[in-house]
């Protein structure tokens, strides 16, 4: 079998949902991973989108949170205030799955603006959406992002969503009830917050990737765990399910 780096990343992101019951899903890479998980490692996973759909079972990857496929296949459709006030802020959702334009060493996220240098206007991004509330209120947060110095940066151009702030204790100080980001899955490996410092540390590498490659593609001095593991290659079943989803969404 052969696979692309994006397929390897998405498969491993889907595997991270193996024990989840409910998942608040972001559009893009998180949605691909969550829908793949429902077809492979976690058939009973309840997918929740911020447009108000509970238990969506799309046959293809949705184009946006307003894609009619999400409502057509949902167990229920409720108002956006109910999604946030009753389900999210009350702690009823296990996992939030987010993407990002920029991530820093403490898993804070920027999806608002990019500084393009002196004399040039800011690059505008889609914005926060529900990400700040998802990162605050879900039991834990998973993130999926392509691994490059452009995405994993020393300093965010704008803090859209708080992960672990500036280190241990920041979430409690800010009154954020959830555990925050527990893993950042990239196309090179997996980063997890150090229990003592909350700084992202390389804990796993994908097949064929070296720690040196991951460090070179990171905007800060990336620390590695004492025993860096290797992720399992995608199975034929996982690849077939992912490619079917992608083909239908094309």
From TrEMBL:
One of its GO terms (molecular function) is CoA-transferase activity. The keyword Transferase applies. This is 3-oxoadipate--succinyl-CoA transferase subunit B. It holds the Pfam family CoA_trans. Belongs to the 3-oxoacid CoA-transferase subunit B family. Keywords: Transferase. PANTHER family: ACETATE COA-TRANSFERASE YDIF, CHOLESTEROL RING-CLEAVING HYDROLASE IPDB SUBUNIT.
């Amino acid at each position: 079998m052969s696979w692309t780096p994006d397929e390897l990343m998405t498969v491993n992101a889907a595997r991270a949902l193996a024990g989840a019951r409910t998942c608040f899903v972001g559009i893009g890479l998180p949605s691909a991973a969550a829908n793949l998980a429902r077809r492979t490692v976690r058939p009973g996973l309840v997918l929740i989108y911020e447009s108000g759909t509970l238990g969506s079972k799309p046959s293809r990857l949705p184009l946006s949170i307003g894609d009619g496929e999400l409502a057509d296949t949902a167990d229920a459709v409720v108002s956006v205030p109910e999604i946030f006030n009753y389900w999210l802020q009350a702690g009823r959702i296990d996992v939030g799955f987010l993407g990002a334009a920029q991530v820093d060493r403490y898993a804070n996220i920027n999806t608002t603006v990019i500084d393009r240098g002196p004399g040039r206007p800011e690059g505008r991004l889609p914005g926060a959406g529900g990400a700040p509330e998802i990162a605050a209120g879900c039991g834990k947060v998973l993130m999926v992002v392509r691994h490059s110095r452009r995405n994993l940066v020393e300093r965010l151009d704008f803090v859209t969503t708080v992960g672990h702030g500036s280190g241990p204790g920041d979430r409690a100080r800010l009154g954020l009830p959830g555990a925050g980001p527990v893993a950042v899955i990239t196309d090179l490996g997996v980063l997890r917050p150090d229990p003592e410092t909350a700084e992202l540390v390389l804990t796993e590498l994908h097949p064929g990737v070296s720690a040196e490659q991951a460090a070179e593609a990171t905007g800060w001095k990336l620390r590695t765990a004492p025993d860096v593991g290797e992720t399992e290659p995608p199975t034929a079943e996982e690849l077939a399910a992912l490619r079917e989803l992608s083909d239908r969404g094309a």
